[in-house]
Amino acid sequence: MKRKICFITGSRAEYGLLRSIIFKSSESKEVKTQVIVTGSHLSNKHGMTINEIKEDKVKINSIIDLKLTHDKSIDIINSMSIGMKLFGRELAKLNPDIVVILGDRSEIFAAATSAMILRIPIAHIHGGEITTGAYDDSLRHAITKLSNIHFVATMDYRKRVIQLGENPKTVFNVGGLGVDAIKNVPLLSRRDLEKKLNFKFHKRNLLVCFHPETMLKAEENKFSFYELLEALKNLELTGIIFTMPNTDVGNQAIVHMIKGFIDKHSFAIAFESLGQQKFFSMLKQVDGIIGNSSSGILEAPSFGTITINIGNRQTGRIKADSVIDCNPHRKDIYQAIQSIYSKRYLEISKKVKNPYKNGATSTKIFQKLVNYPLKSIQSKSFFDLS
Q1: pLDDT at residue 386, as a whole number
Q2: pTM for the complete prediction?
Q3: Residue among 9, 20, 5, 7 nearest 363 (CA)
Q4: What pLDDT score was predicted for residue 131?
Q5: For position 305, what pLDDT does the model report?
Q6: Phi, psi angle pair for 175, to nearest 5°
Q7: d(CA 303, CA 185)
Q8: How many distinct structural domains can be found in the chain?
Q9: One domain for residues 347 and 365
Q10: 141 and 210 fall within a common domain
Q11: Are residues 149 and 88 both part of a single domain?
């Protein structure tokens, strides 16, 4: 019988990474592909990105609405409780041989917990990483312990998953899926991108991707973003392109501040979701990406684009030389922006190497998903370091 592989996706960024593996699975005659769509994919506030999945002609087997209507901590807890029940029901119905999940978000934790209790093997992608400024850190490590096969992006991350007690035979260093995806996406020219976005690039251009830092209080996040906006507002001959924040606690305050900034500054524009092709094309065209998004760490170096990484949200991740770590204060941010155009960073941008580059990541993962023996895989024991 064909092996049934079930992919679960809850956000635009995560789907962009899983996309190439889902395509390989859907095209294969060796497996039966199942896809569950949930989380912010179903939110109008976040671009209703389920439509991007439909445009890819991916067959969706189940849609799970987590009722993401608000952005307080209790709302996230409520959506997780809904998810536990509905993921359990749908996974029991689909009865996959293995579930594939990526990352560290709350809805993915709920899905992993349901799959584990149903005794469905779990393959987890991008474990072993550290992001000190977000509670995603704890969720990611918890998901690692719920999972049976691990696909990590670097050797350091592989060591960390093993340190968590996972058997080395189940932990595979395959590189970053973001780097792999870049090679498979045809980029738009500057002119075509301008037409699609109805936006004229300026002499200088910066992409801003800022999400709430979930280990901070709401007021602290607002202050950090306010300081960023203060640093941006006096830049000359510079276009500012915002992408809206994800569904983390406190996201609506940032959305409100972005809209207020755009209303007052004609050189700024915002998008709920660019989609993978337009986002990668934008990364290629801009001078730098500013904020605290993982895309500035994982993908931007592949384009030679300088990253200004603000605050602690990505603290602990391995970073390329093109990443400038910065405190959330307007003077520091402004100075970092000026550094983008310095001789030093112009040289770095030409020769930077992405530490997440490995090669054929999606192919390596898919081959393991098809061929890895699943019999008794859930009877795992804690692997002690000698």
Answers
A1: 75
A2: 0.87
A3: 20
A4: 84
A5: 97
A6: 90, 180
A7: 13
A8: 2
A9: no
A10: no
A11: yes
Best CA proximity match to 13, nearest among 240, 204, 297, 221:
297
Burial classification of residue 338, based on how many CB atoms lie within 10 Å of its CB (0-12 exposed, 13-18 middle, 19 or more buried): exposed
Sign of the C-alpha dihedral, residues 258, 302, 47, 270? positive
Residue 309, in any domain of the structure:
yes
Say yes or no: 261 and 330 in one domain: yes
- Nearest 10 degrees: CA dihedral of 122, 126, 128, 130? -130
268 shares a domain with 318: yes
Instruction: Write 346-349 long-range contacts (CB < 8 A, 24+).
Output: 348/306, 348/321, 348/322, 349/304, 349/305, 349/306, 349/322
Residue 117 confidence (pLDDT): 96
Provide the CA 337 distance to its chain's centre, in angstroms. Answer: 24
DSSP string, 170-183: GEEE---HHHHHHH
CB 276 within 8 A of CB 185: yes
DSSP bridge pairs for 50: none
pLDDT for the residue numbered 203: 94
Whether residues 154 and 192 fall in one domain: no
Residue 338 CB contacts under 8 Å (≥ 6 apart), including other chains: none
Nearest C-alpha neighbor of 342 from the set 288, 290, 294, 299 = 288
Please check whether residue 55 lies inside any domain of the structure. yes
Provide the CATH number for the domain around residue 69.
3.40.50.2000
Helix (H) or strand (E) segment spanning residue 50: helix 50-55
* Residue 31 counted as domain residue: yes
Question: What pLDDT is stored for residue 72 in this prediction?
Answer: 80
The reply to whether 203 and 320 lie within a common domain is yes
Residue 211 lies in a domain: yes
Rounded CA gap, 71 and 78, in Å? 11
> Mean pLDDT by 10-residue block, N- to C-terminus, for the chain (386 residues)?
95 90 95 96 85 94 88 86 96 98 93 96 95 82 97 96 96 93 91 94 96 79 93 93 84 92 94 91 97 94 97 92 96 97 96 91 96 88 88
Task: Order the strands of the 171-173 sheet from edge to edge.
Answer: 62-64, 31-38, 3-9, 98-102, 122-125, 149-152, 171-173
Find the angle CA(86)-CA(147)-CA(34) to the nearest 5 degrees: 50
What's residue 236's pLDDT?
A: 87
CB-count burial class (<10 Å; 0-12, 13-18, 19+) for 57: exposed
Shared domain for 12 and 112, answered yes or no, is yes
Structural domain range at position 312: 188-351
